[in-house]
TrEMBL record:
PANTHER family: CYTOKINE-LIKE NUCLEAR FACTOR N-PAC, OXIDOREDUCTASE GLYR1-RELATED. Residues 7-162 form the 6-phosphogluconate dehydrogenase NADP-binding domain. The keyword NAD applies. Keywords: NAD, Oxidoreductase. It comes from the Bacteria. The keyword Metal-binding does not apply. Signal peptide: none annotated. This is NAD(P)-dependent oxidoreductase. Residues 171-285 form the 3-hydroxyisobutyrate dehydrogenase-like NAD-binding domain.
Amino acid sequence: MTEKPAIGWIGLGKLGLPIAGRIAEAGYSVTGYDPASDRLALAAGRGIEGTAAMESAARADVVFSCLPDDRALRAATLGEQGLLALMRKGAVFVEISTVSPEASAEVAKAAEAAGVHYLRVPISGNASIAHTGNLSCFASGPKEVFEEILPMLATFTRAQVHLGPGEEARYAKLAINLMMAATAVMLGESLALARRGKLDWQDMLDVLADSAAASPMVKYKVGPLAERDFTSTFSCKQMIKDLDLIIGAGRAGSVPMPLTALVRETYAAIVARGEGALDFIAPVKHTEWLAGLGEPERRTSRDADG
């Protein structure tokens, strides 16, 4: 592409809006579709031309979609009035949601029939950092198309990798989200055990953050855990949705996933207790409840004990 292509955007939610905004800030013309008028009003403040007619966004050179689940993806893209039927032949469709490989494969088949180039580009990261450009993405689909749109991806991601021609990126995203969910549950049990051993809450977090077990996710969560802040960046309800996708993909591929099933039940218990809107790190709080532990005492000063 020698000139900056026109961009269409489908889905201006908590993740979609800041990403589309970063593309607009980079000098691209972005037309964004969302059925909610309040999201369109917010889009205008980010330099995005909002529209309540999907067709207006669908006529762009490159169309992105950021949608909540399989049902929304199928509803938006398939059928005679769906996005793929409205897009022009030769255009590029970039789908960044976390959805099942099965639903994505249906979209791929419809895109091929419509003469549209289809890239699966699920995003790693959350809405709280989307405005910073520090997301990362995994892509699969035609490699030459991926390379063509890299400048657009670079406006909102710090890392981009192409993994293959088909649904590889979908599996990569599910595999990573499984590690995040399992880590959160394991972290809950580890911290509860440490508290039973009379370790100070902040001391244990400090040790954990400087240990061999300190993944980037663990380090990122140490700060909120120190403050006992379970405000959602990605909720327990959202994690259940992804775990269901993961288990479904495992069944389809004959991959036994007993640990994943147990992790899913932990999140189901959190939701059943009415705490599904908490951050996905809430298994820490849940395990404390199971163990009969109250809120940990926290030092007001790191020098309080001399």
